[in-house]
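To fix ideas, we reproduce below a protein record of this kind.
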Amino acid sequence: MPGANSVTSNQETLHKDLEEVVRKYARTTFLRPIADHTREAFAEVEEFVRKFYATRNANNGTAPRAVILDSGCGTGESTIHIARRFPGIPVIGIDKSCARLNKAGNPSQTAGEDIPANAFWIRAELLDFWRLALDYVKACKWTIPYHAVYYPNPWPKQSEATRRFHMHPIFPTLLALGKTIELRTNWEIYAREFAEAARIVFEERAKSADAIAKGDSRLLRLRSAQAPAGMTDAAGMTIKCESFDPEKPETAFERKYKEARQKLWRVLVALPQ
């Protein structure tokens, strides 16, 4: 089936440099300048979130507004499914491809129903959008109870490993964003690497929290630069990596993989609620 080929790679187990790379990035801050077009896109999202709650006369006080992210949403089908699952929370589908986003909300996705009022799509660079979103989380403007990262490019060649989200400097930011992060993939190694990388980052944060408690300020940057207040303590954090068989596929990729009888994997990273 076209587009449903299984992942082929010259890597047969977790990448040999995974731990070294993840620990390095857990101790640093990603400082690449944020693109203006993503700042503009983020402002559109912030306005949508504000209006969503204003029209419902909800959360007009100082409490953080709940927002759900669907990162790398592609044609936006997953955003619709997630929006129906969480009808009272704005769900933001983010993708960098205008061509893919132009297909969002088409009749084949909605099955004759209206597009959920809480679904919103935006074109933006994910890495920049996440950093802007983290600023809002740290400022207690937003809380992100669920963050979907469905079927990212696995970059299967060993030489491409640092382009995977979990071996990129952005990974600590990604983990700091949501209360629950769900990754889905059709490559077992990617899922297991993502889970192990999450464990390593939270281990580094726990070390930072312990050092701070002992009066050692050398690791304070972990807390101030990346994690929102209260998130350096990994106590109660859970990471689950498992195969799964979706009853109702939520993306075109998921549908193709299921029809091709490929085993699918997901990782759930849940922080204390």
User: Anything to note?
Assistant: The longest strand covers residues 238-244.
